[in-house]
Amino acid sequence: xxxxxxxxxxxxxxxxxxxxxxxxxxxxxxxxxxxxxxxxxxxxxxxxxxxxxxxxxxxxxxxxxxxxxxxxxxxxxxxxxxxxxxxxxxxxxxxxxxxxxxxxxxxxxxxxxxxxxxxxxxxxxxxxxxxxxxxxxxxxxxxxxxxxxxxxxxxxxxxxxxxxxxxxxxxxxxxxxxxxxxxxxxxxxxxxxxxxxxxxxxxxxxxxxxxxxxxxxxxxxxxxxxxxxxxxxxxxxxxxxxxxxxxxxxxxxxxxxxxxxxxxxxxxxxxxxxxxxxxxxxxxxxxxxxxxxxxxxxxxxxxxxxxxxxxxxxxxxxxxxxxxxx
Length: 326
Prior knowledge:
Elements: E1 12-16, H1 21-31, E2 38-42, E3 48-52, E4 60-64, H2 71-87, E5 92-97, H3 116-127, E6 131-135, E7 150-153, H4 156-166, E8 172-176, H5 182-191, E9 197-204, E10 212-218, E11 225-233, H6 237-248, E12 253-261, H7 267-272, E13 278-282, E14 296-299, H8 302-313
Parallel strand pairs: 1-4, 4-5, 5-6, 6-7, 8-9, 8-11, 11-12, 12-13, 13-14
Antiparallel strand pairs: 2-3, 9-10
Helix pairs in contact: 1-8
């Protein structure tokens, strides 16, 4: 009996969780696809149910979910979506997490602590994800937690281009919020044309999360516009103190640029009143109108996500989106 040859074909299908409809719709628009219809609802006891309304057999499935509050609900929903796709015979499943959940728990500080970022990777691998796509991990080592390809997208160009266009001609110093992000500050400085860098040396009490005990500025910032960069802003306490410290040390003005606006509790009020000239985020996480204020700018990450999805689907190079530096 002679072998039968088929016609190879690829089908991109895009799926979205319920956490951030606006971002999912925008990514779908850039991809020129529709979000696959699904039934998704919660039972009375909080259990989540998902069923896709179209066949996904043999598809290249991309599942996007933004992990905002309540974070555990949205993590579970995406896991259930991935499991449903695996059981429905999707050919390849890419879990898109613009903000990687539990990324701050990437190592043990003391005994008897979890490494929850690794647990998240294990959960998605077990559920059936073949690939993970995310933006600006808290630490790059998290890529090694997942046993498969991880597309680590960088929002630096998006943020830096906005800063360069908005503050043309002003003397800029790029400021890292701690000594551990000086390499990122150097990349920012290069993109902004070789500006000086500085960092804030800070100490923390490990028993008091989200609280800085003391800090001091290291670097030349007097009379300069300081751009404080970070991957995320949660309660806003640390970065608000950094702004105050920079202004006291003689900075002419301060701009905050961060990828993920977690903005828990009264963080928006802290940021609005900290003295920063502008606070810039991307929309990896939803930022509701009640959390926005006149000095806040939210840039869309959707075009970058769409380009990365297209490269993965066409077996192209995601690294090429970042000049080989991803």
